[in-house]
Structure of Branched-chain amino acid ABC transporter permease:
Amino acid sequence: MSSQFIQLIVDGLASGSIYAALALAIVLVYRATGLVNFAQGVMAVFSTYIAFTLWRAGLWPIAAILLAVGVSLVFGAGVERVVIRRFERGSVATAIVVTVGLFVLIQGISGAIWSYNPLTFPSLFPLSTVKIAGAVIGVRSLGTIAVLVVVVVLLQLLFQKTKLGLALRAVADNPESGSLLGLHVGRLLMIGWALAAALGAIAGCLVAPQVFLTPSMLDFVLVYALAAIITGGLDSPVGAVIAAWLIGILENLASAYLPVIGDDLKIIVPLLAMFIVLTVRPQGLFGRKELVRV
């Protein structure tokens, strides 16, 4: 196995980890409400701008990011309580249009407050490199992968080992039955949106040091995240993570070994993955097939 191949794999896992963080946020909202939140990316950017503001105010980068993640919890809960709750039990098409409206609104607010000029965001990880099996791997790539692994483990512990996690799963599977069991459905849905916003903030803070911070910074990541959840399964957090990693690896390999694709056309990889999976297995690689009784 060549050192270049190993480097491409690790860098692909790092890119896929960023896609996976945003994909997890979208899956959380979908499992709680049956709604795909197209505003997830701009909500993450808004939280990243908050981290940037706190950093410029004098906080250490890690402290600024952690505080911004805390603020994003409140932000996500507020969006669900004030806006989304009015449409959750109505038409799905109307709710989706509302999230698209939120996309435009929040992106405009971010531009109005912080301008559309690109800003430099501090990196959590040093720009140094390490050698692994002859490949030169960036510490930032390894750090990004580590952050996602920690997030996935924490989410798994939350949903499998805590009462809150069990309640969230019950409401996601059947809100009517959860309500009959005495669960506060509205409050749990709000918590689901809050957790999703926090995950989005983490994704934004991982992306921002690698590109310039702008209101549209995560638009391309949203495309990859949607591709990951469609490929892995809309109702499968683990599937979204695995699909995001696969997409990250495959696009890196394609851009390196297929000259016809290169860096300019590697967006074809997630689109092709979506097309193939939707053709062969519409529910996604790890999704559950819905059975309708008639």
Notes: The two ends are 54 Å apart (CA to CA).
